[in-house]
Structures are given as C-alpha cells and as structure tokens.
Specification:
This protein is mainly α. It has one domain (2-179): Clp, N-terminal domain (Double Clp-N motif). It is built from ten helices and two strands. It is globular.
C-alpha cells in the first residue's frame, strides 16, 4: 500500500514517526499523524487545514489533544458515557496523577525495560492508513495523498476526529475545501 502514497503522504507518515520519537512514545498514533499534517506546507492537506484551522486556532486544537491524552485517550463521549455509570474520569485522572505524576494515564511512554527501539504504528494509526486507501479509492484517486490521511482522520471517530470537528475540520468541510475552485 505504501507504494501508492504520494511524496507528501510518505513525508507525513515519516514525520508522524519523528513526532512519536520526540514525544517518547512507543507507537505512532493518529495524533502523531495529525501533528505531522499540521507541520506540512505546500500540500493539499496543508492548504485545507490552513483555511479551516488557521495557525492562531492551532494552540486550542493542540490543547484539546493534550487533554484527551491526559484522559488516557478517552473522547468526551466516552467520558460522558462513563459519567452516566457514575464514573468520574476527571477525578480518576487527578488521583492517578497525584500518585504517578502528570500524564501518567497517557500510556505512550517508552519503558526502557522492554522497548525494542523500533517504533510501530498503533492499531488506530494503521486503521487511518487503511482508511486513507479506501477514501482515495472512493474518490477515484490513483494515489494516496496527505489529503486522504486528513479525510481518514476526520471520519474514523475518536479523540483526533473529535478535536478536529470542534475546530471546524470535518470530513464534509475538508471534502468541500479540496473541491473548491480556489487554488490549493
């Protein structure tokens, strides 16, 4: 499948792995893919992201991702469902962080005792890559570009899609932005 990726999509995947390494994560996650997309310039996804979530709104997007990481990757919908069962995710996060330190529930830190040094992709990140292929095929595109990665991130649900949607980046808005007559 990787041979069908454009140079921009390949660079995005490589930059996602670099983000994971810098974060000290043992796996590449959808969040790392989004961070890599946000770093890109002069690509179709970068142009759409620039219009839908301009640089001045990015700190808010990054804060939303950070908050979700603190909640062990639970989306707001997950936290609300647990609240309906009488489980206060915020209180759990506070108690765990009191004992183990800030970010203890993130679950993405390398453990030197077992980590092999080779980054892999999380199940969710692999699903994003697979979905990007399906999106490209559905759009009758011959190659998988970084725009297909962005579309896949918006459609798969979860924390990244939730944070993007809160900032006006949805499948529909990205699709419209890609189809707009203005040059990218």
């Amino acid at each position: 499948m990787f041979e069908r990726f454009t140079k921009a999509a390949r660079a995005t995947v490589k930059e996602a792995a670099a983000h994971a390494e810098r974060d000290g994560a043992a796996v590449v996650t959808p969040e790392h893919l989004l961070l890599a997309l946000l770093d890109r310039e002069d690509t179709r996804a970068a142009a759409v992201l620039g219009r839908l979530c301009p640089p001045e709104r990015r700190p808010s997007l990054l804060a939303a991702l950070s908050d979700a990481r603190r909640r062990a990757g639970l989306s707001r919908a997950d936290a609300e469902a647990l609240a309906d069962l009488g489980i206060d995710v915020g209180a759990i996060v506070e108690r765990v962080e009191e004992t183990h330190g800030a970010g203890a529930l993130a679950g993405d830190r390398k453990d030197a005792g077992w980590w092999s040094g080779r980054l892999t992709f999380s199940r969710e990140a692999k699903t994003v890559l697979e979905k990007s292929l399906r999106v490209a095929v559905a759009r009758k595109d011959r190659e998988i570009g970084d725009e297909h990665l962005l579309l896949a991130l918006t459609v798969l649900g979860g924390v990244v899609a939730e944070a993007l949607a809160d900032h006006g980046v949805t499948f529909a808005s990205v699709d419209t932005g890609l189809s707009s007559p203005t040059p990218l």
